Amino acid sequence: MARVLMVLTGAGALVMADGTTHPTGFWAEEVAASHQVLTTAGIDVGIATPGGVQPPPDRNSMTAPFTGYLDGIADQLATPLALADVSIDDYDAIHIPGGHGPMADLAVDADMSRLLRAANERGVVVAALCHGLAALLSTAQDGDFAFSGKRLTVFSNAEELGGGTGENTPYFVETRLRELGAVVEVGAPWSDTVVVDGTLITGQNPQSSVTTAERVVAALR
């Protein structure tokens, strides 16, 4: 049975450009839809967070039917693995959903960087969705950006300005990725857009959750 490590944010708040604090967390649809597609395909999904803290949901995302699905995996969400204790050797893929939380913690987490670099070196699938791509920025903290030259998509600047946290966003993930050398390909705002470049699978937004997870299933087959 294939095994996927789903990495979730442990951050419940994001410091904005003006210094105020914005409540955040993981986006319910992205976690629920991804987890459902993967497990329905017979894949074993483990959940991990920085420090093994319980991942907080973004309250604005807690709508049916996603809340019902999350209730069904509540025990797993309550007791995640700590990223520091995880070895990439135990998994066939990493899957990183979004919500603004990853911008606060996964983007600068040393263990996130370690796992992503190891996955790249060993040909392990790396999938990231929406703001989950902020996790890729962690690899620029301790050396060259591991995803320079890679084609990918991400929650776009247009989406951030039009339906995200707007001008007060502390940084734009699309812009950061471009500055570091990624080849960013975004679709129309709120479109189901997925880009695959080798073992890197990325989805643009919540609307891309199911397709991104389906591409992961296909890659593992």
Describe this structure in words.
By secondary structure, the chain is α/β, with parallel strands linked by helices. The chain has a single domain, classed as Rossmann fold. The protein is 31% helix and 18% strand. It contains 8 helices and 11 strands. The strands form 3 sheets. A 7-stranded mixed sheet has the order 5-4-1-6-7-11-10, with helices on both faces. Strands 2-3 form a two-stranded antiparallel ribbon. Strands 8-9 form a two-stranded parallel sheet. The longest helix has 13 residues, at 28-40. The model has no long low-confidence stretch (mean pLDDT 97).
Can you describe this structure in just a few lines?
It holds the Pfam family DJ-1_PfpI. This protein has 221 residues and is of the alpha/beta class.
CATH topology: Rossmann fold
> Looking at the structure, what is the overall shape?
globular
The main sheet comes to: 7 strands, mixed
Strands of the biggest beta sheet: in what spatial order?
5-4-1-6-7-11-10
Average of pLDDT: 97
Report the strand count. 11
CATH architecture: 3-Layer(aba) Sandwich
Name of the top-level CATH class: Alpha Beta
Number of domains: 1
Oligomer: single chain
